[in-house]
Amino acid sequence: MKSDIRAEYQKAFSQLVGAAGARAFVLGRQGLVIIMKALGIKPGDKVGVCSFTCFSVIEAVKRCGAVPVYLDVDEHLCINPQEILWQSAGSLKVVILQHTFGVPGRLDELLSACKKIGAKVIEDCAHSLGCSWEGEPLGKFGEGAIYSFQWGKPYTTGRGGMLTVSSPDLLSEVDEQIAKLAQPMCFRNDLFLACQRVGFSMLCNCKLEYSGRLFYRKLREKGLIKGSARFDGDFAIFPGYVRLAGSLMSSAGLSQLKKWSELQRVRRQNTDLIKDNFLKAGLPLWPVAPKAEVTMLRYPVLVPNKDQVLDEARRAMLDIAGWYSTPVHPVRNEELAKVDYRLGSCPRAEEMIRRVVHVPTGYGLNSRSLEAITRIIRKNFDDRSE
Questions:
Q1: Are residues 43 and 167 both part of a single domain?
Q2: Is the pLDDT score of 255 beyond 80?
Q3: Which of 83, 194, 322, 354 has the highest local Cβ count within 10 Å?
Q4: How do 161-165 and 53-54 pair as beta strands?
């Protein structure tokens, strides 16, 4: 592999977000394992996590031998700061602050609460590349941050993730852990993913991105391809679990960074269009703190009947999504206990999960589809009021 390609990618990304350094992995959760190890997380340590999250975050916590402590959410679908303050001093070694859909929640209060109980902060920026708080990029407010570049993220390399850190000293610790645990990405896998990117790009150019994702989901359900979130209950760190980004993935990442300004402009422009349409239809806007400047990954809304909205959207081939459908998506029912989640422990998150849907802000959105999406959501409110 041309190792300088990955180094160039890491340098370009760290410059974009203003980090002390960055390291690129095949998956974002692998970077999360590395930084938790670098911060000294040991088996039995407790890590605070958002109760509206993806299994990949919990997998990383469990692979370190740590115990996830689920913290209920506020109106932003981010951790409620009071949930942190209710924890005893020193009980949480780390809190992972997830900026859901790109919204940082009540960041000042969250950071203050973590400081008060002595918890270090890792930011989950999988949704929030391009977002800031008082002019500072998200990802700079903790010890480090993780980013994801899977298909539905702010920019995509198919798979892929980045870890950034805020200090040179921590970067040295990170590199020590990488030397112990990480292996290069298999070139065959790197090449196979490059072929998938070509197919994805062709679908996007033909305005068939949504159809392609439905087809991908069907193949995954039939076991013909592997999804990135697979629950098997085994949380050992096996040789090769942590993989560094390959040369083709790194090259694709560099290409995406060159387009980033335009990608960000499109998402912000479409977010404004969504807000205008929602206001005209009398639909509620998602709360964003005045100090936050956000590039929304998806634009969420709480609806009376989520299943009805999703069903109508599927029949009309419209991109209204409902993730997450569980507090640890996609883990369900009795399997939640295996990731230490107890149903009923985070009631606000569970209630919002039953109601939240969201619409795209990327290239796939146009005025015609947005009008149809808005009608379906508005109809859901009207049906409930009858």
A1: yes
A2: yes
A3: 83
A4: unpaired
